[in-house]
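Because discrete structure vocabularies remain unfamiliar, we reproduce here a specimen of the format, pairing a chain with its fold in token form:
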Amino acid sequence: MHTRLNAMMTQGLLFIATGLAGSFFLAACSDTDRNLAEKGQTLATVTEQQLNNLNQHKFYFMHHSVGDDIIKGISILADEKLTPVNIMALDGNAASLSIPENGFAHARGGMNQFPMTKLADFEKQIARFDPNNRPDIAFMKLCFVDFNPETNVDELFENYTQTLDKLEKTYPDIRFIHVTAPLKQRPNGWKDRLNRLMGRLVWEDASNQLREAYNQKIRNRYPPEQVFDLAKFESTAPDSSRVSQEQDGTTYYSLATEYTYDGGHLNDTGKRVLAAALVDFLFKQSR
């Protein structure tokens, strides 16, 4: 009787101790997350001059949801600096397009999971611009959902370069810049960890590897000053470390957990950090 009672009391004490330890651990994690978020805020610094630059040229950006996140980040930074930025949402499906005044114009194009449609739409959209109101600088980006373990990176990259080469020759008055593909956060559920131990495919690991393969082709093909390395910024944590993994001797990268709320799209910190990086990049492009 006493033995059983003692065992029950011991289990109860262990349960309480475990709960307290868990609470302390969660509190510590929360403090750590908060500190990292604050570091992320310090990374998202822009000047009034950099923001004003967006109002001194005609920019055009074709994108989907992560692009929306970055544009929201630009708005946040502009509000904080009390520096209005002329952001214009265009209808990418319109029969004709025009950027009548300086500012940051953007639109959607193509279908998610079908990257070739995005390349085709970007070419069509540039062709539909009024010759008197074309962008000075134009760029598009693919999405993380455009990559899966079966993506043919060589074919996709070949289509990208063919499309951009054609556009550069046809529209020499437009400066085309290039953007690396966004990443996903590395999944770390028990099934993912088990599959890695068993040597089985983890969908997002394989997809991030192919995103990196595509991104590296972008970096190799175009001069650094013409590449907005979105993936590099996404995978650089607030403490300046890179979120990287290795597979068969090859390094690839993942979206930093501090920048996302769902493993792919950007939270407020991510929006600000990526927006600041883009604003700085475009400022350098315009000088």
In short: The mean pLDDT is 86. DSSP finds nine helices and nine strands in the chain.
